[in-house]
């Protein structure tokens, strides 16, 4: 059993623990398998969470735990457990402010401009792997704000799907505790939530823009029906897929998007060479994958 | 900027007494940097550091900071220099001596934001250069560090107009050079070029200073300009920018600088840009630590 006192002091990870080169290898392995990158300034998070798994499996050192992830018979299961631990508690409303800023300040205005030329005034979003609904509600609230300001006269729809029936049911309820709403700006709290005991209930005006349903992303026959979307969010879901399923799902996402549509992953998640079709684009503090018909310019022609 | 405008700007800058003078420590330092790492004389660096009481004190303070996790405190300048290593000493010397160019009350931009950006671009340039096997990563670092030196010139020479340009940029969320062009009729790239020439900086570094926003035909500036241009963009997209939100989408695969480097360096094909981008968050700590050391009073 790992001795917790040597790893975690006063809630912080001791500096000498972070310096163990085995962590770098574990970090790189996680990236290779899932596309999730743990920057060195966030290492204490990785170490803190992996330490929990080390205690469960009885690994004494990161080097030994690396064996559990690479050499032991149930290594795939252990990797899933570790990924679970790493992405746990990541779900809350308004989770990634840089993504929200990119959406409101760059993506939505540019999509709207392109669609307006074609006389379209509707935007469609898909929250794929919506878990307990935090993401689709966030999207709907943002769009409600936009349609009262720059996008007056526009309509929108948020499609929210998850594999887990219980998550979908919980999402439909739209009731959250104060931890889940900790990032919600006060003006949104006032406008879009009502107090329900110690919890907060999302207003029906938000709910009416969202359709919740159960969907297995590995079910090709169902995925084929998803079409005509402008923006897809799929955060921390693909990390659990093997290479082949990942490639297939990304292809479905690509087909589901309209030209110029955007595909967002989790904050430090990447496609890591899975798809050549999407183009990685940068916004301040966020990245996304873009379905563009624009070819890459030949060197020297721009 | 047109040549005649550059000449006019040059005349204006040279006439003004406020033209920044090259810091004493910088010339020998630039000479030190011009040789391969293995030829650098650490004793000479210790000597350089000892010249300046405030820089020496900063080195000791930084060597003892949390970043280096020493087991016993560094007390002498020599042990501090050894512990920091040559590159961090150089960072300290550069940022400190360049900061001395401007009196504290003349900064129009926040010096902390300015140095975070400059050091961030320097680190990214070197990392980028390493990844594509650019032959001189330290030159890339130097060009990154100095690329915005024209901002210092503008603070000294046209403080009021430059303040207006900064305000316009952050109010309208536009790139600084665009705001400068509208307000001043020239940019920090132009004034940086004039300073680089006056200080006799290497020609390719001077080109990087001048062309990092308007790379135009990448053949003209060569790979160093492209490296600085892309590193500057990456930093601005990763919280190491000018301190205001730039609402824009950057498609690196379509940037002329990127396409140019793809043509020149086979290593470009191997770059995992997403991973590179995420790893930039690691620099934030290093850069923050360094800047805090320079600006701790």
Overview of the structural elements:
The complex is a heterodimer of chains A (about 300) and B (about 300). Chain A is an alpha/beta fold. Chain A has 2 domains: about 5-85, Orthogonal Bundle (Chemotaxis Receptor Methyltransferase Cher, domain 1); about 95-290, Rossmann fold (3-Layer(aba) Sandwich). Chain A has 13 helices and 12 strands. In chain A, strands 8-4-3-9-10-12-11 form a 7-stranded mixed β-sheet. In chain A, α4 (about 45-55) crosses α6 (about 75-85). The longest helix of chain A has 21 residues, at about 95-115. Chain A is globular and about 60 Å long. Chain B has 15 helices and no strands. In chain B, about 45% of the residues are buried. The model of chain B has no long low-confidence stretch (mean pLDDT about 85). Chain B is mainly alpha-helical and about 300 residues long. Chain B folds into 2 domains: about 5-20 and about 105-295, Hypothetical protein af1432; about 20-100, no CATH class. In chain B, α5 packs across α15, α6 runs antiparallel to α7 and α7 packs across α12 (about 205-210). At the A-B interface, α7 and β11 of A face α13, α14 and α15 of B.
